[in-house]
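ESCALATION

Customer reports they have been waiting on this structure for their group meeting. Please prioritize. Original submission:
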Amino acid sequence: MTTSPNTTDAEIGARIANALIVKGANVKALSDSTGIAYPTLRRSLAGGRSLTIREIGSIAGALQVPASALLPETITGQAA
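Update from on-call: job pushed to the front of the queue and completed.
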């Protein structure tokens, strides 16, 4: 059975993917710098797995962006 990604998880994944593009980085490099296993990170970026607060913080640090920039407005209450 295939389930569709959670909308919030998918939006976070899209924001991280966009930040990777802006930084000229890739998922493998992000995996290496955060310690999040590559398959786990790929699944999370596709919206198939929720990231923990700790993981979001680690990703934000690796990408040198505020963690709030990776979160949708529905969570932060403000536009990123």
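Sent to customer with the following note: The chain has a mean pLDDT of 90.
Escalation resolved.
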